[in-house]
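Researcher: Checking consistency across runs. Here is 1,3-beta-glucan synthase again:
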Amino acid sequence: APKPQSEKADSLSIALPLDSLNNNDASPSAPFSSLLPHRHRERHHHTPLSHTTLALFDHRNRSVGEGAMSMSSGGPSAPQRQPSMGRRNISRAITMRTDGYSGEEEGPIIESELVPSSLAPIVPILRAANEIEDENPRVAYLCRFTAFEKAHTMDPNSSGRGVRQFKTYLLHRLEKDEKDTQRRLASTDAKEIQRFYEHYCKKYLEEGLQTRKPDEMARYYQIASVLYDVLKTVTPDKPNSEYDQYAKGVEKEKASFSHYNILPLNISGPTQPVMEIPEIKAAVALLRKINNLPTPRPDTTNGPQGIDDGPIVRDLLDWLWQTFGFQKGNVENQKEHLILLLANIDMRGSGNVHQGERQNHMIQRDTVDHLMKKVFQNYISWCRYLHLESNIKIPHDASTQQPELLYIGLYLLIWGEASNVRFMPECLCYIFHHMARDLYDIISDRREESFDPPFRREGSDDAFLQLVIQPIYNVIHNEATMSKRGTVSHSKWRNYDDLNEYFWSKKCFKQLGWPMDPASDFFADPTKTKNDIERHDHSMSRRRMSKTNFVEVRTFLHLFRSFDRMWAFFILAFQAMVIIAWSPSGSLSAIFEPAVFRNVMTIFITAAFLNFLQATLEIVLNWKAWRSLVCSQMIRHVLKFVVAIGWLIILPVTYSSSIQNPTGLIKFFSNWIGNFQSQSIYNFAVALYMLPNIFSALFFIFLPMRRALERSNSRIVRFLLWWTQPKLYVARGMYEDTCSLLKYTTFWILLLICKLAFSYYVEISPLVGPTRTIMFLGRGKYIWHEFFPYLQHNLGVVFTIWAPIVMVCLMDTQIWYAIFSTICGGVNGAFSRLGEIRTLGMLRSRFEAIPTAFGKHLVPGHGSQPKRREREKEDKNLHIDKFSDIWNAFIISLRDEDLINNRERDLLIVPSSAGDTSVFQWPPFLLASKIPMALDMAKSVKKRDEELRKRINQDPYTFYAVIECYETLLNILYSLMAETSDKKVVDRIRESLEDSIERQSLVREFRLDELPQLSAKFDKLLTLLLKTEEEHDTTIKTQIANLLQDTMEIITQDIMKNGQGILKDENRDNQLFANLNLDSIKDEAWREKCVRLQLLLTTKESAIYVPTNLEARRRITFFANSLFMKMPRAPQVRSMMSFSVLTPYFKEEVLFSTEDLHKKNEDGISILFYLRKIYPDEWKNCLERIKFVPKDEESLKSRMDEISPWASYRGQTLTRTVRGMMYYRRALEIQCIQ
């Protein structure tokens, strides 16, 4: 492509020969970035500060296998703005295609979505062209021309997949735009781009700095960088220092609007609240101490020239970025990761520090040491296992913890960029081991102020990814290809564990080296044949590295091989029980008889045979994978087979020597032994045979000794343990504590005792007598002689009788395990208080204790505590208030999920106006029907107040309901009164009532049987108040006034025996209760009081079954029951350990689109129709929540924004996962507020 013409030229011409687009040269191998699906990513949710670590992947970090896009030469990688998508289909949109443009796309074409993965760097240029298309089409044309020129420079032969089609499309687009677009600001293209660049920066970067959001500013700065790159392309021979200086400032400011996860480290403008946390500020300050570090020499071949003198190094991780060639996005991710780790550990270590002491906070030295110990725990263990000296060395003259932070940052950066290699932790240790040595050499040599970085590739900002991670990833990719999706035998390909085990030996240092040798056997391509290797590499012939320890062979024989000790125990126990039962006495005490004991000792011969069978299976099952095993594994299998054969010969021969009056073959062996014949030789042989098992039992009992031996790195210990297990780095000494082991052992000992006793007394012993009788009977004549052949002693019949018994003896352990696990689980659950609340009835009966249990387990304790009794009194109300917030949030979440309706929500929720009454306001579902019951009690009591008080106090919820109803009613009446005289009337009624209660004359002075009439009037009044929306409606005021007047007349004339004079109008110009104050109608808290009071007055037995939805019931009972389980007291939120929630995400629909929900299958059923029939009550609740009554199916399409999430929560697993993930954040926010 020719360079653009000078300013005198009228336009830019394209004179690209078409043969370059139609080149038929063979395409090279697929690019490295296309080895994995580029749209695969892991999405994550960050919980609040003290509960989060940084997630693994981010849009700024291009991991191996992801088709991430890098920025053009105008600056670092740009934020990726996703194109617009369908209204409800919010699955990840295509941002880059591996196959390019096919010509079959319908609808409007967005060039940035058609770019093949091999041309990724031109994507930001095309996006900028789309952004400024409407504002200046000519400049957009120049941007596309620059993109075309870069694409042709990157792939002049169009050999990449989809490149030829994309170039053809873009060429035709440029030819069309060259004719259709006109210059608006100047007469030439060079001046046009210069003036537009100046205009764009002034309009979007200077004027909108304080008004626009950071995301918008980041996009504008990105476009400005692209425009400057285009400007340099259009005017290559006319340097302009003014624009260069301005672009330099733009690039520096651009970094201030880069994307971030939690911590806005580089964002300019007002400081974010998270950055004001003292521990965060201290961690940031600690990382930014970069004094006394040598400077890496910049790469003159990478990055734009004339814009910046060099990359900005603000902290230690930026220095590591320049030193080892990590990706910038990875550096930003791990920078936040490290800061949050330091802050979180420091928070937990500082405890309850006074706020004033935290203002000038500094990260403690113990914090860095603790983090370093945790991060390098596996690396230090790996070094000890291989008898290596750790390369984490601190210079002697280090006065700060700068070296420690550099090592931690280096490991996190390696881990963050490792991609699939992350599944090989010892491989990461190998990489870190060598890079830590390079780091120490750099920071310990202070003779020079600058140095050459160890990793650098010309024109690349991902040197570590390409030079270190890519070769290892290629091995993983080739092995995965070799497996053919797991259909190939496991012995022919290596998985992650097999590759990782390569780094469990010092041989990796000799064979692989550093920098890693591409000719090493580790990198041998498994897909190439031996002839291919010899053809392409004449200098040496290499063999692919084999597996180390384990090769999987799939067969049903694993049923015995994997559980050989279990089968051996059952077979030997069955043999011993049969021998004892066959003795003359048939009792267990017969084992002490010499003859019986000698016969029981034959079980060791059987054990030797089973051991021989096991050793044989080891060889047979590994025969196909024999070549894949290492030499030590082969030797172990062969020696075990030889030893098994030896014991199979020794034990029978020595046993035969101890038998009195031998005959036949036994006599031959006895004579052959000769002088060695002795009664105890077999016992000695058995003792020697059992010696390894005795040592195993001792190590099992003394668990600390066993754990210490297995974790030992001593060569002698590892040689001795080699016989029992192969040389392993992982899973050494992983045992439970001694107490758990004792409980586990006791459980199985009791189970086996019961199983063996049952087998002996119920199955084996009763069958011995009939078996003897059958064996000594004469031969019978059987019609079915095929099944009962004429064998000696009727052995066919004996076999038929004993076969079921043998099967039951081998299999009934599962039955006994079910019985014992049920008993032990029930006892353990009872002591752990599991299932204490299982039904709604139990929930209502125990609800009063729930706030106390909540405060005991989930409310953090404080350092200074008062006396126990005083603390219980003070904390009771406090726990109730805190519990009400959690309970309300829980109930509201049920309503948001449409599991309950509005009425059920009002019945379950605790009012936000708690504290307006003298008693705690329990949820109305607990107080349902309490007021009607109290009214019935009042009607039935005719004589004494004491009887009424006693009956009301029998049920505490009835007492709470009566007091709350009375005080809330007074509060509402006072809020409606505008005149002082009206308030005086209410005061007189209240004083008369309270005075009669104090004098215990309520029954005598009030007609309590008229209270239901008063309750009905109040119900009508509350209904009218809740329907009122405007306080200036005269008709509504009149109706409310009339109801109040009727209510007062009922109170003073029908209920009060001495209340006739209370309502007299003396010297008044208007009627009582005619002038009302309705200003409170719009107050939500006041309306909530009215709703709750009406529920108390009218709700009857129906509230007992609230909620009706089974899922809502399950969640409520589970939530309440969990509070009574044994659990440690929750610490303060700032003292909790950090955690992250990761959600796998690959080409999944997050929300159903409108088309998906209404698309019918072959039966004419749509997804929405199906979900409405499956969840009818929840659909009804959804319509109530969105306040919509559909007329027909078509009317639903107008409210799909609300309906689509409802359907997705019930039909999409990922959507429910994301919602549950976000509940972590809501729960922690509530706890933080408390």
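Researcher: Does this match what you'd expect to see?
Model: One thing to look at in this run: Residues 842-861+870-1124 form one domain.
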